[in-house]
Amino acid sequence: VFPEMSLTVTGIDFLKSQNTQQHHTDGYNIKDLVVRRGQPFLVQVSLSRELRPADKLSLRFGIGENPMRNRGSLLSLKPEREDFNGWKISVVKKNGKECLLSVTSSPNAPVGKYNLHVKTETNIYKPENGAIYLLFNPWCEDDVVYMADEAEKKEYVLNDTGYIYVGSAYSIYDRPWNFGQFEEFILDACMYLLDKSKLSLNDRRHPANVSRAMSALVNANDDNGVVLGNWSGNYINGTSPMDWIGSVTILQKYYKTKKPVRYGQCWVFAGVLNTVMRCLGVPSRCVSTFDAAHDTEENLRVDIYLNEKGEKLNSLSFDSVWNFHVWNDVWMKRTDLPNGFDGWQAIDSTPQEQSQGRFQCGPCPVKAVREGDVYLPYDSKFVYAEVNADRVYWVVKKVNGKDKYFKVGTETQEIGKNISTKAVGQNRRVDITWEYKYPEGSKEERMSMQRAYSFIRPSGLMPRSGYASTIQTLGGNTQPLVPKEPVNKTGLQLEINNTEALHPGNPLEMAITVKISAPGNWTVDLTGSCQLQYYTGKVQANLGTIKETINLEGTSEIQIPMKIAPDAYMKTLSSVEDEVLILVTAIAEVKETNDKLTKETSMRFEYPPITVQMPETAKLFNDFTCAFIFKNKLNVILENCKLLLLVEGLGIFKMTTFELGDIMPGRIVKSEIICTPTRLGEKKIVAKLISNQIKGMSTEKAITITE
Fold first, then answer.
1. I want to staple 598 with a disulfide (CB 3.0 to 4.6 A). Which of 329, 353, 409, 419 is the partner?
2. Which residues are annotated as a binding site for Ca(2+)?
3. Quick one: pLDDT at residue 225?
């Protein structure tokens, strides 16, 4: 009797193209297999002889440095036997020495990079490229990240480009951003971050833990994470936050050097975190809030200090209102919370405040913000304050050599406006303020606020400057105070707008409109100021002020012009690395009734367009030419111009920079590049022009690549 020939494995085929199409992972630019949890994938095993019923064959999936069965990091699966961890394997068909197996991982398996070995009798076969990346699965109903709508999954998981909305509530604009979650090394960078997070295997099962850890790791604070924040205006030893057009270069550089990439501001952190979450399979979107409060004491109030000329003072403020702030929403069921808080969760990787000792924020259920349930994890008080704080204006006056504070206005409906994200399947902005808050002034809003105020104890209305003890606190009142707009006897209203286009190099022409609706004769003292400020609310330069006393009769209005000469601001504009906004603040006081009102508006400079000329479609591997045309329609020389071009996902070339030198007024410049597309589908080309005078000019155009 001849001894039985022992069973060994001679090869494994991961059937990559078939599996990745089924799993919506065919976009990843990586040689290994990428699959999503809770969904079957096929492997074809080649054996030394036919498989018989008595044979022992098992697939071993290991994760981490030293996989062990008792730690759950090594799964040993035998066909037709469900494993205790919810994984299973079945034999699909046997054909001679070939055996086709179907593997289904658990819908709550830890995400990460697994290695597959096949064990027979005494032999262990270790394939080359035996790594399998396991991701969250929004297509699987049993996965907590399940998303029912196909178009939403296409946008929030698979779309690798998008827009981030910035500017000010008065002038919102879109900044194209290349998320690029499928590009080379991005998935590996995310795996590196997962390992670096020190999350336990158990914690890797739930996207709430993973998204919280990623919000900490995308900023460099306290863990050598991906991006180093810098709001100083000096970016000499790094890249100015304004110059990034996407996350790919940042994550590739970080993965290569393992050192924080310099520098980011909020939209950069949000862009990178969006890439990381989509790459790991969690539906994710960038969310921009205009006039977002940065409230350092969770007292739901931001104090703004003005001097007697109505100019905002930087030095006294502990807290601030950012013209815009960008964070992310990720989609999941919150199995760790009471019912009713599933769906979008806010996470924020901009390092603002520590949470449990690290710069991390969220996930905070968006529904908890809307309902005022600010006791729920994580960081819901902070997120609630960002979109619901009140803004209180104080004028600082010297009285007998001492600073005294006079309240000149309270706004209860100005914070957290125009909350925006990119529309599903369309290149337009959609307003999602209603998801974060009930309509201002509605019954539900009052109830939600009362609820929030019962968890957040606001201190009495005192200015928060250290030595400001000139005002009595409201003592002994334990009822939560929900502030109301101050009563206004004359119906005083202020409006601020620009009367001419705000082109750099031209005078800034603005107007403050004062309205009164009560009958009678009224004397109004109006103070107005114009300043340049960063989007974080930090004032960069004072440009000019006006002071007028006006008389109004009955229901009437008057428009007071305000004009700033180019000389007053051009020097500042050229000396800063960031885009700055024009801030106009107006204070009005009615002498007869002591009605006081303060209003501020931030506006953005307007720039001439960049034109992109190229065909609408091109064939795979066929060259096409792309031309960029820019005419300087401004009255100033644009110095030291650079044109940055990025072709997204075409696999053509990374980024090209043209040095254009100085562009005189009226001059037209044209640059051309030749592209060779290597991938099908719609691709975007983004062009950005940077000069000493202007930091924020960009445009983009799409091209469809066909076979």
1. 409
2. 388, 390, 440, 445
3. 97
Q: What is the pLDDT of residues 203-237, one digit of tens each?
A: 999 999 999 999 999 999 988 999 999 998 889 89
Residues near 266 by beta carbon (within 8 Å), at least 6 away in sequence? 322, 324, 325, 326, 327, 350
The strand pair at 301-306 and 390-399 is best described as parallel
Domain-terminating residue out of 583, 604, 625? 604
pLDDT tens sequence across 38-75: 999 999 999 999 988 888 899 999 998 888 887 788 99
Over 70: is that where the pLDDT of 469 sits? no
| 364 and 397 fall within a common domain | yes
**Whether 677 contacts 623, CB under 8 Å:** no
Closest to 16 (Cα-Cα) out of 6, 2, 26: 26
Residues 610 and 642: their CA atoms lie apart, in Å, by: 13
Is residue 481 a part of any domain in this protein? Answer: no
Q: Do 67 and 73 contact (CB within 8 A), yes or no?
A: yes
Q: What gap in Å lies between CA 595 and CA 588, rounded to an integer? A: 8
Q: Output the CA–CA distances (angstroms, integers) from residue 417 to 169, 291, 514, 606, in the order listed.
A: 7, 6, 23, 22
325 is catalytic: yes
Phi/psi region, residue 649 (left: phi>0; alpha: psi -120 to 50; beta: rest), is left
CATH number of 105's domain: 2.60.40.10
Residue of 190, 266, 279, 530 marked catalytic: 266
Query: Is 576 part of any domain?
Result: yes
CATH classification of the domain holding 329: 3.90.260.10
Task: Name beta bridge partners: 687.
Answer: 645, 699
Burial 573-586 (b: 16+ CB within 10 A, else e): bbebbbbbbbbbbb
144 in any annotated domain = no
CA distances from 330 to 247, 292, 345, 386, 674 (A): 18, 19, 5, 18, 38
Tell me: do 496 and 448 sit in the same domain: no
Question: Could you list the residue range(s) of the whole structural domain that residue 46 is in?
Answer: 9-135
d(CA 264, CA 413): 30
Does the residue 145 lie in any domain?
no
Is the pTM higher than 0.90?
Answer: yes
Which of 83, 108, 135 is the last residue before a domain boundary?
135
Catalytic residue among 99, 117, 325, 595: 325
Binding-site residues sit at 388, 390, 440, 445
Same domain, 298 and 186: yes
For residue 309, give the nearest of 608, 108, 536, 548 by alpha carbon: 548
Q: Where are the beta strands (DSSP E) in 295-434?
A: 301-306, 320-332, 343-347, 364-365, 390-399, 402-411, 417-422, 429-431
Which two three-digit tokens encode residue 322? Answer: 């950012």
Q: How far, CA to CA in Å, does 68 sit from each of 71, 73, 175, 228?
A: 5, 5, 47, 37
